[in-house]
Design a protein that fits this description.
Layout lengths: L3 H11 L14 H4 L9 H12 L12 H4 L16 E2 L5 E2 L17 E5 L5 E4 L11 H10 L9 H9 L4 H8 L7 H15 L3 H4 L5 H6 L7 H11 L27 E2 L40 E2 L21 H10 L48 H12 L9
Antiparallel strand pairs: 1-2, 3-4, 5-6
The chain binds heme C (2 copies).
One heme C binds next to helix 4 and helix 5.
């Protein structure tokens, strides 16, 4: 995490504004920094960020706050039935992707195309959103504020103008200067930074308060079934889940249950997404269409960032397109993708199975073949039905808010 002062400097520099003139060699810090580069204390930023996060008046419809889609009661993920959210000016624009939880993003590295993972594999990693296209949480916050199917503001000045009319505009002025709203670019940059500061509050965004965390702290024992579930989750020949949903302690912190890596696991097309009514529309993750800088890198088409599986048991929509509605379906998919593809993929006109039906046929097959996704038809599945029960029991220990009972 960068010090907020540095972030504010970079955001202020990116915006048109008075140049920062280097001061004399020996100057007080205040004299060296232009007023717009002085950052309020982190706690002040975070509390302003909290007010913004839950404020629907910052959307064109007046009905949508960040917290509407990212609900703290659901680990800052979607409330039941709301993962494929509706937004826009008229609250009628459908989403193309499932709302992720905003917890446990604190360890996400900057996006990189050639990262060497612990196991020696090299590939893309990091960044924010399912395709890693936002480089930081403050850059990310701009996306929903301006997206036509989300908060639908016309531009930065529109956001700044709405902000100037909020009940907490005075607090904004107190923190950033009385004239903050006279420079919409600067007000907008400040808004993105306070949203970021809010999303860095540990108790809210990485509380490590699950039953499994209590177990790691030595406060309780797991049940035998949960213990079997952990072993299967980690066993490279069984679930092998931990190879992507990292289960080990890192940098002194409990496991994030993701290593923020990108792979194509061959998620089926979701016919319930209105965008998919167009047979030529494909959400290909790293290679577009939302992400625009890697569209020619076909080797990365269909690559999405692996999410943390913390708090996954309270979701009702799984994967980037929300195609599955239960953990059991997800587990069956991992176990059976190549054994019974007809259970997951649409049919071709001739009745044969169209495997990996959410990828255009022109893109070379780059679908992951790591266990348990390494079977050929007729082979034994990696997991039995009772193994699946055990893994689900373990995943349920990863829900935050365990009260000690
Ligand atoms: C209409 C529902 C909706 C609203 C409102 C919304 N988001 Fe999101 N959020 C999403 C979806 C969907 C994604 C996934 C986007 C993608 O992958 O392109 C997402 C992704 C994110 C991510 C990236 C998470 C990750 O795993 O990398 C962050 C951070 C985030 N939102 C923060 C915010 C903030 C801050 C606001 C308010 C300014 C906000 N969101 C408003 C639906 C919403
Ligand atoms: C090769 C890497 C890899 C392996 C192995 C793997 N996953 Fe995943 N997992 C991913 C990626 C990538 C995604 C997101 C894919 C997408 O949305 O297109 C994902 C998504 C998920 C999700 C959906 C979470 C959400 O918020 O939507 C769950 C649950 C999950 N995996 C559980 C598991 C379990 C349990 C195992 C072991 C049986 C496992 N994964 C094995 C990479 C992997």
């Amino acid at each position: 995490m960068l010090p907020l002062g540095i972030l504010l400097v970079s955001a202020a520099v990116a915006a048109p504004g008075p140049a920062v003139v280097p001061g004399p060699a020996v100057a007080s810090p205040a004299a060296r920094l232009a007023p717009e580069a002085q950052s309020p204390p982190a706690a002040v930023m975070a509390s302003l960020g909290r007010l913004m996060f839950f404020d629907p008046t910052l959307s064109a419809s007046g009905k949508l706050a960040c917290g509407t889609c990212h609900d703290p009661r659901y680990a800052y993920g979607p409330p039941p039935g709301k993962a494929l959210a509706i937004g826009g000016k008229d609250m009628a624009q459908p989403a193309t992707r499932a709302v992720p939880s905003l917890r446990y993003l604190h360890g996400a590295p900057a996006f990189s195309e050639q990262h060497r993972f612990l196991d020696g594999d090299v590939g893309p990693v990091g960044g924010f959103t399912w395709d890693g296209r936002a480089g930081s949480l403050h850059e990310q916050a701009a996306l929903p504020l301006l997206a036509a199917n989300e908060m639908a503001n016309a531009g930065p000045a529109d956001v700044a103008a709405k902000l100037a009319h909020t009940a907490y505009a005075a607090q904004f002025r107190a923190a950033f200067g009385a004239d903050i709203f006279s420079d919409p670019q600067r007000a907008y940059a400040a808004a993105l930074l306070v949203l970021e500061a809010f999303q860095q509050i540990p108790e809210e965004f990485y509380p490590f308060s699950s039953r499994y965390d209590a177990f790691l702290r030595g406060e309780l024992e797991l049940t035998e079934q949960e213990e079997r579930g952990v072993s299967l989750f980690k066993d490279p020949a069984k679930g092998n889940c931990a190879s992507c949903h990292l289960g080990v302690t890192r940098a002194g912190r409990p496991p994030p249950f993701t290593d923020y890596d990108f792979v194509n696991v061959g998620v089926p097309r979701n016919p319930r997404l209105p965008a998919n009514a167009d047979p030529n529309y494909y959400d290909l993750g790293l290679c577009g269409p939302l992400r625009q800088d890697m569209t020619e890198k076909h080797e990365f088409c269909g690559f999405f960032r692996s999410p943390s599986v913390r708090n996954t048991a309270i979701r009702d929509a799984y994967f980037h397109n929300g195609v599955f509605t239960s953990l059991r379906e997800v587990l069956h998919f991992y176990n059976e993708r190549d054994l019974f593809p007809e259970r997951y993929y649409a049919r071709n006109p001739d009745g044969s199975v169209h495997k990996f039906d959410d990828m255009p046929r022109s893109i070379p097959n780059n679908v992951d073949r790591d266990p348990p996704l390494d079977r050929d038809p007729g082979a034994a599945p990696a997991l039995t039905e009772s193994d699946i029960d055990d893994i689900i029991a373990f995943l349920q220990t990863l829900t935050d808010g365990y009260s000690g009972k």
